Amino acid sequence: MTSRRKFIKAAGLFGGLTAMPLLSQGFSSNETSSLPDFGNASSDDELFAMVRQQLLIPTNRIYLNTGSLGPCPVHIIDAIHASTRQLEMNPVGENWGPLGNQTELVRKKVADFIHADVEEIVLTRNTTEGLNLIAQSLLLNEGDEIITTTLEHGGCEVGLNFLVKTQGVVLKKIELPLPGKSIEEIVRTIEKNITSKTKMLMLSHVNTITGLLMPFAEIAKSTKAKGIYLIADGAQAPGLTNVNVKELGVDAYAASGHKWIMGPKETGFLYVSKKFQDKIQPVFTFSGNTVYSASSGTRNVATIIGFGLAIDFHTSIGSDKIQQRTLQLRNYCLAELKKLGGLKIISPENRLLSTGIVSFSLDTVKNSDIFNKLKEQDIIVKLLSQQNGIRISCHMFISKQDIDQFVKALRLLL
Q: Dihedral of CA 159/291/126/275: which sign?
């Protein structure tokens, strides 16, 4: 095993700082957390069991809500603590010195992770902040149309409502097929709602309600030809599915680091394509896209460094391997849920539209009752209020045994 101290040094985080003791379950106060060598795993099951061991989630808890917030690995938590201690030993010298310099490396890691150029990356605190930077600075005309769907996250809608109130634009919410059956069906639904007044589409890359993988590349063919801005709410995508912003054809892409990437809370990024940058110029990036600038002000260098380590963590395992694992778990969960009565699957079954999210609505039982009863058994799921539904996040650290236990509990409750 590679010790956490060696891991952090290899990442270039700090030099002479003594390793922090880990005060968490499974370790005594005089031990430090360690990161296993995933290359020594004899199988994928063993590899992802090793990933599970890096989390502070108690062994008796089944955590199926990464889509809201993901658990951060212990070695990253410890690195944040260590960086914070180093910062506070010499706040000015470190913030605008060695530790501050590390944050710029994180921008490069994000750029590589989503196949962008570093000049196109702005580090934010979350997806909502990234989308709001666009909404507060994009200039549209009264009567211009923005298209989104009825299944978007409220954080996305705030910025759109701001544009409605401040610029008099028209917000058009369209209904997507539930569940979506094909790429052609999704694209056709969107295209038939585009008019000569449409100036922007804002859609989730992975839908927060159903887990549908939006076919952005196909949609971009229409928007580019018509000069329509294409904006992605990527909150649920990075860390769950591969993201290549160039192939997607989006003008901007906002995401969080604290969901499927499993990074520290209050981390995220905004990608703005070079061609789109002259269209949005918020005060936050007036002095440039660097992590620290005159217009951004002081940043939380420790959590930003931790965000970079979370990307390293995913990269060390392999994005393709993680995506394959989450789809396998999702397919298993879907098959088991379909054996039950009293519910309807609202996530797409088409593999081209699928991700590691499975959602279902309940026929007669209240979802809040199911949610609370599962919580009493330490099974954590997501409540979908409007659909009387439940959302399950099948991230890589979940096992088939976890899903079996969840389905067994659900069967008894139904």
A: positive
